[in-house]
Amino acid sequence: MANESRPCPCDIGDRFDYGGRGQDVQVQHIKAYVCKPPASTDKAVIVIHDIFGWQLPNTRYMADMLAANGYIAICPDFFVGQEAWKPSNDWASFDDWLKTRNAGKIDKEVDVILKYLSEQCGAKKIGVIGFCWGGAAVQHLMLKNPHLKTGVSLYGVIRFFEDRSSLLHPTFFIFAEKDDCIPLEQVTLLEQKLKQNCKVDYEVKIYPGQTHGFVHRRREDINPQDKPYIEEGRKDMINWLNKYL
């Protein structure tokens, strides 16, 4: 379990030195990073960032990966101008910081982004992926937003929504075996509840030996022993989106 002084032990991991192939845009009151594929498409994916915010190069790298796989990818600032968490911040203040950044209160922003994607980008089929804080946000959206087709929640913090499991859309849950943030018994409980209540396709997958953030916050060249799992997680994510979008 996480120790109490660090309630969400999100180590920033390997910060990618990555500039991004897309561009920053303003969508009503929201700043967002958008990357489009070479060929035109009507499929789009909303990328929901982790506690380190929409400008983290690693998250932009994932958005660009989606674009390279044929999707319009958009990573909005779901903190809407509030400061992202910094590795230098005091973890004792994390709970207070989180109070004003609720992963279950992003519906207004999501509606704005959905409108932009359909009206400005020609998107007809839209999915969502999210990491950590954003993974919890994906779970929230899969429970209530009728306009999204599918979601991938990557190490989404279960305790935010642990009592609700009747998903509206096919959802893929990626977890790490050695995640200090999400104990495996929580994952087991989630699986049991999904089995009882869920009427749509879902999958829960645990990647052996991996830690929180492994799909987007670890560089394969620095962690050769983890490279197969990092690649597998990314491939699984893309395959799920390809299947349901």
Automatic annotation (TrEMBL):
Where does this protein have coiled-coil stretches? Answer: none
One GO term of the cellular component aspect? cytosol
| Keyword Cytoplasm belongs to the record | yes
The leader peptide range reads none
Check the record and name the Pfam families matching this protein.
DLH (PF01738)
Domain Dienelactone hydrolase positions: 30-245
Tell me the keywords, alphabetical order.
Answer: Cytoplasm
What the record says about family reads:
Belongs to the dienelactone hydrolase family.
Mind telling me what this protein is named? Carboxymethylenebutenolidase homolog
In which organism is this protein found?
A: Mycteria americana
